[in-house]
Write the structure tokens for this entry.
Amino acid sequence: MTQENKTIILGVTGGIAIHKSVDLASQLVKQGHSVHVVMTENATRLVQPTQFQVISRNPVLLDLFDLGSDWKPVHIDLADRSDLLAIVPATANIIGKMANGIADNALSTVAVSVHCPILIAPAMEQHMYENPFVAANVQSLKSHGVEFVEPVSGDLASGKQGMGRLNTVEEILGRINQLLNTSKDLRGKRVIVTAGPTREYLDPVRFISNRSSGKMGYAVAEAARDRGADVLLISGPATTAPPTGVETRYIETTLELQEALLERFDQTDIVVMAAAVADYRPQAFSPNKIKKTTDQLNIPLEQNPDIAQVLGERKKRGQITVGFAAETNDLLENAQRKLVKKNCDLIVANDVLAEGAGFEGDTNIVTLLDQSGHREQLPLLSKREVADRILDRVVDLIQEGD
Ligand code: PMT
């Protein structure tokens, strides 16, 4: 990705994964960014500031009262001209301070002084990350628009295995570049994203559903938001929190999803349908819990409307509709058929049996197919990166149609 050089503050706290931060600083400098490192005292016990200073080619800020060459306090000057604050690795301590507005050292003071996007990559023991106080602080920061690169599972400092390991440098770098993407190429566009599973109830306690976690659709909603769009996320019962800064409406059944989509479709520019929608629903709903009375139970099902097809037939003002095709065989043939039948502008084909693709995970492997016959096969990418690649194509399609 080519972009202008940016001023990035890299906050470094005392986590054992600090070596990844050294690598990150080096890669950011190689990309042409101006990197200014701010270290906590504990971080300096693990890595010498000189190392960051040489790699970043800028002085490292350690103390609030360090004298800069200017009359302005260094942390204020830095905060005023930065395009991004990335804290890598972030301990429970800095997360707690930030969530509570505490400014008692150089980094926490910079964090309350910046007016640029903030990205946090936590690293800590699993039980710390899952601790309810820490989780509440993370949630509070997210609700104020702070971005997180979630930790992953693996070896931890304690020698145990678990969740809490700092994510990879590649993933963090990818998120930084996304946040720095100033093109805002969807500014002024109204985008609807559907995500998660639908539920088709048999009785008050049982339903037919699927494994969709909502992650793919949520990533598209987040990416569209970052590119300046006005986003409505219509979500089935998903397993993760929706992105901040996005209007979210929850539905359960396919018919509810259709109603929510039709309500806003005519005023919308782009619809991305990542929801895993049930093709059938029980013909009858039993108001009471179905009792175990027979050896076999047959439940007649009736077809749900094909919402993507309904929208495809209803396009009046050149809306772009993007469908997903979740396939287990004949991926491209089936996806091509859906592209035509549903009159989508773009279909995102994912082989949901392939390792690293489809339901629940954080990655996907997809091929993008459009009406002109153009096909783009993408490698294994994070769902967020897939989301951006889909929106890149959507932007191309809008430009081609202008
Ligand atoms: O949520 P995750 O765990 O991250 O998993 C991601 C995903 C696998 C759910 C996602 O990437 C995906 O493939 N979503 C589409 C699932 C699906 O319903 O596929 P389909 O091939 O059955 O449907 C094709 C398209 O038509 C989809 O855009 C679907 O939203 C839409 N559809 C389907 C049925 C129906 N009755 N109405 C529809 O509009």
Summary: The pocket of PMT is lined by residues 212-216, 254, 273-277, 279, 304, 306-308, 323-326, 338, 342, 350, 352, 358-360 (CB under 6 Å). DSSP finds 14 helices and 21 strands in the chain. The longest strand covers residues 320-327.
